[in-house]
Amino acid sequence: MKMTSQEIRKKYLEFYQERGHSIVPSASLIPENDPSTLFTWSGMQPMVPFLLGEKHPSGTRIVDSQKCFRAADIDDIWDNRHTTFFEMLGNWSLGDYFKSEQIDWAWDFYVNHMGLNPEKIYISVYRGNEKFWIPRDDEAVSMWQEKFKEAWVEAPAIDNAERDGMQGGRIFYFNEKENWWSRAWVPENMPVWEPGGPDSEMFWDFGAELKLHENSAWSDQPCTPACDCGRFLEFANNVFMQYKKTEDGFEELAHKNIDFGGGLERIAVAINDTPDVFMWDLFDGIRNKIEQFSGKKYGENEKETKAFRVIMDHLRVVVFLIADGATPSNKDQGYFTRRMLRRAIRFARDLWIDSGLSAEVAQVVISEYSGHYTELLEKKDFIITEIENEEKQFLTTLEKGIKEFEKLIAWFQIAFERSGQKVTQISGPKAFKLYDTFGFPVELTAELASENGLTIDMEGFEKAFEDHKALSRAGAEQKFKGGLADASEATTELHTATHLLLAGLRKVLGNHVFQKGSNITAERLRFDFSHEEKMTPEQLQEVENFVNHAIETWFDVTISEMPKQEALDMGVVGSFWEKYPDVVKVYTMKTPTEMFSIELCGGPHVANSKDMGRFKIKKEEASSRGVRRIKAVLIKDE
């Protein structure tokens, strides 16, 4: 049964709405108050406070389509099923229904409403962990077997498939690597108070003939639904979020939760039984535009197919990243926007496309997605301008890289004339310098080297690259020292201080100031805001005085819930209105005689400012074009 992605998304949201779920909008790709990560990479991330027990303003049953971006996958976009950006369809039970309802509804939606053939569906469940006293999930197995029985499909449950293969099974037990879900992936790595739980994944079988598809390295290994040979595709994950990590191990949450996630792209290819996600309908317009510019057809040969996939994946997410505030730059989220856009431009050269494609594809993405993500249309001109400017700048970078390469060739010639020994290979460190210093892609270096009768020491390049990444990771660990977002007193106080900081900035600089991002650890806050000019020392002091005056009044923080439109009408400050549900939480900081801040939010706050300490701005600097950044601390009396 052919079905468009727009139809699938709509039917999914309506299916759960009919079962008492409130539809909420997607959160931004830029996480709010989560210093552990630069991006929203799962549907679970924005929901963690509510999974831990905080009341959600929209109730105990939630359904959404969450934008996600996994930066770690950038260099792995080449096969037919992975993308860095995806929409995660999610339904949530916050202490409401649990395992039996979720399995029943998931089956009902995919089999009865989407038309999936039960004979091509396979299931995985959690094997259990004796070390943490977490049992294997025989309960879920029984429930799935009952659903298969209704469809007249035999469903034997099999263990040790990773060693012995399929063994005629339909349901498979796996360990934490495959069937445990938390932000830290496996139980051993979870910080204290982090929620997590066993999950049960649903797979679509494209057929045994795909065992060798694209990658013969899998041909002599046991095939299971969880392997990556290409035969099976995970399209849904039912997480039974029932535990939290403690100092002594694991204990059950006071209220068991359901966290369901199903990638829209993957659901679409399963429903349409098409293994290549890049042949999915929301890629049609992008793919056609690339074919129009290049004069080539997708899928004709391996090298060009990889170029098509990289361009399609990267330019799509660039549009969403810029819309959410991550404009191309050399740091933080903007670094990844720049890297992906430039990588797409580089791969366009493999298709003999020089310039102009990026902005054209961006227009297609905006057109395809703006029906659901209205912010894309609202920010269309800004997105296109950012992409055009970045492409122009990078083409200049390419010219510089080519000049540096030509200098290298000239140096080789001089060395040959002096020694009589011909250079046949460019060393790894030299190739990496072209990449790191001049932004010159190694693929281009290899292409030019081949034209000059040279090769590249790729092993040496990879070593230099890995050394560089190790240094970058070490730097990132220092940068995000606070670890996963927590609800510690210090973090809570600094989060409360960001509300006062925004109020102070608007008072001193004007009402054009809005929050553009924040990053809070237990040690400090970092706050990005819209403003064109560097702040003067006098302005900074005035803001600091405002915050400290508010703290010294010992104001109370009150929370009220109201319709979003009512909050808008009464002038409540909010920087990301589109991500909030129809009913919002409004945090007010005031005394009986003074109002300091009234703002939308969803994070932890102090009840009273009595013990917050003294607010001190440590630094004010540019973050990106039109955005400034303040770093500040709270100093406690000894």
Fold and architecture overview:
- The chain is of the alpha+beta class and 638 residues long.
- It folds into three domains: 5-279, BirA Bifunctional Protein, domain 2; 281-389; 489-635, Threonyl-trna Synthetase, Chain A, domain 2 (Threonyl-tRNA Synthetase, Chain A, domain 2), CATH 3.30.980.
- The protein has 19 helices and 19 strands.
- It has helices spanning 5-17, 48-51, 99-113, 138-150, 161-164, 176-179, 264-271, 284-294, 302-323, 332-350, 357-369, 375-378, 380-419, 428-438, 442-451, 458-479, 489-509, 537-552, 564-569; strands at 22-23, 61-69, 85-94, 121-126, 157-158, 171-174, 180-181, 195-205, 232-246, 249-263, 425-426, 455-456, 515-520, 525-530, 556-563, 583-590, 595-600, 614-624, 627-635.
- Strands 1, 2, 3, 4, 5, 6, 7, 8, 9 and 10 form a ten-stranded mixed sheet that branches. Strands 13-14-19-18 form a four-stranded antiparallel sheet, with helices on one face. A three-stranded antiparallel sheet has the order 15-16-17.
- A hairpin with a 2-residue loop joins strand 18 and strand 19.
- The longest helix is centred in the middle third of the chain and has 40 residues, at 380-419.
- Mean pLDDT is 86; it is low at 212-216 and 475-485.
